[in-house]
């Protein structure tokens, strides 16, 4: 069997189980979690977090926290599959299903990868418009050039890519930290918002937004990506102690970066709740936030063009770095389900061109109206929601297979919790789809 992402598979040497400190080992294994965390901070997350804050202040922070905890659980299963079975999720599924089902799953996941790419394209184009006044159509066409950025990064090797992405995440976090600090939120009410209440289920609008947060948080491409990136570390995978340690530190890496993703999304929600909750108009677009941050009539003395610019700059960063992860995820899906390898630049161009076709068609139909474009992000979540059950259930069953996972097979409790969570997420996503449609 071909290695998953052969060019980076086992490319990063890590310390032996018998040497160095916890911190040195953590740093050696740290990186894949940063690439995965990017998927939890795309424009879909931005819109749902900001909208949740503007409508219900801090009350939906609990939903965001629960979503991240569930994501930690699911990503841990993806890590386990990669480290123990030495297969990514696409490869493992492809080996267990008949060829017709394999092709159907490939098509479904390709659509999900394109939906993921779509959010990055739109986010980047909107950021370019906000920063430089570039018309959306030109910003969209310029995203073709980000293949050059991806290729440039990949020439540095996976370790340097991980560092670049980590710096980008820290930059975005600092930007929103500054903006929230200036907004002077009510910290007591923030802590209250972290505690779940039954009102979320009974209030229809809160429920719909909660479903949106859940749908924007847990996405299939992150599971495929993590199951492959977990194999990028080079160690003796025939040594049970080394495998156990690889699982331990890969999960540390994942959880730390998912906490960072939670903090950034929480900052967005708090920003929306602090600055825009008192206004009569709920946030309908990223443009609304950009304009609001420099409008004294809306945010009072906190209004500042610098804050608006930093917001747009953070959006541009997340749009660009998402290009890296969507490229890698797309390659994993194609290689795993079809056993076809393409050079990354070809894979990137193919994905981007296929993504741009519907964007440009819809753009000309709606005269490149920004609000309609941001609505595409919402509809992209539908595609991701449809693909998610076909990713979660196979992953849980595969990691519960004793022949494949040996002593690292899921115990009964893990399997039951996994299937229960996957079932709940599926029902919630169906509810979200019906709400949107």
TrEMBL record:
A GO molecular-function descriptor: manganese ion transmembrane transporter activity
Q: Where in the cell is it found?
A: Membrane
What membrane topology does this protein have? Multi-pass membrane protein
* Keyword field contains DNA-binding: no
Pfam families named among the record's database cross-references: Nramp (PF01566)
One Gene Ontology term of the biological-process aspect is:
iron ion transmembrane transport
Q: What is this protein called?
A: Divalent metal cation transporter
**Species:** Companilactobacillus pabuli
């Amino acid at each position: 069997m071909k290695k998953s992402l052969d060019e980076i598979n086992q490319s990063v040497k890590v310390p032996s189980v018998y040497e160095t400190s916890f911190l040195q080992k953590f740093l050696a294994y740290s990186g894949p979690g940063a690439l995965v965390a990017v998927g939890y901070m795309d424009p879909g997350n931005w819109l749902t977090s900001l909208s949740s804050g503007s409508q219900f202040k801090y009350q939906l922070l609990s939903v965001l926290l629960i979503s991240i905890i569930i994501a930690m659980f699911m990503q841990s299963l993806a890590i386990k599959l990669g480290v123990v079975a030495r297969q990514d999720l696409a490869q493992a599924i492809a080996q267990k299903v008949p060829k017709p089902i394999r092709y159907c799953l490939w098509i479904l996941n390709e659509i999900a990868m394109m939906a993921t790419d779509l959010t990055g394209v739109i986010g980047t184009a909107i950021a370019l418009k906000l920063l430089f006044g570039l018309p959306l159509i030109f910003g969209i066409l310029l995203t073709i050039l980000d293949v050059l950025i991806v290729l440039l990064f990949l020439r540095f090797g996976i370790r340097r890519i991980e560092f670049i992405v980590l710096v980008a995440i820290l930059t975005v976090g600092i930007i929103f930290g500054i903006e929230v600090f200036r907004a002077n939120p009510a910290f007591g009410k923030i802590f209250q918002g972290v505690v779940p209440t039954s009102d979320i289920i009974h209030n229809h609008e809160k429920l719909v937004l909660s479903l949106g947060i859940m749908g924007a948080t847990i996405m299939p491409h992150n599971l495929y990506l993590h199951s492959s990136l977990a194999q990028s570390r080079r160690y003796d995978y025939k040594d049970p102690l080394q495998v156990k340690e690889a699982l331990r530190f890969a999960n540390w890496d994942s959880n730390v970066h998912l906490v960072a993703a939670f903090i950034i999304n929480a900052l967005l929600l708090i920003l929306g709740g602090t600055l825009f909750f008192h206004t009569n108009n709920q946030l309908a677009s990223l443009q609304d936030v950009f304009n609001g941050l420099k409008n004294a009539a809306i945010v009072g003395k906190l209004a500042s063009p610098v804050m608006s610019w930093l917001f747009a700059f953070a959006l541009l960063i997340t749009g660009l770095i998402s290009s890296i992860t969507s490229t890698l995820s797309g390659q994993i899906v194609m290689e795993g389900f079809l056993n076809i390898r393409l050079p990354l630049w070809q894979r990137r161009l193919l994905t981007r061109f296929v993504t741009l076709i519907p964007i440009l068609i819809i753009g000309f139909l709606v005269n490149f109206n920004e609000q309609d474009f941001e609505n595409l992000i919402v509809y992209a979540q539908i595609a991701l929601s449809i693909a998610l059950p076909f990713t979660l259930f196979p992953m849980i069953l595969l990691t519960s297979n004793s022949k494949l996972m040996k002593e690292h097979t899921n115990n009964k409790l893990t399997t039951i919790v996994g299937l229960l969570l996957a079932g709940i997420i599926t029902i919630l996503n169906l509810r979200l789809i019906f709400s949107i449609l």
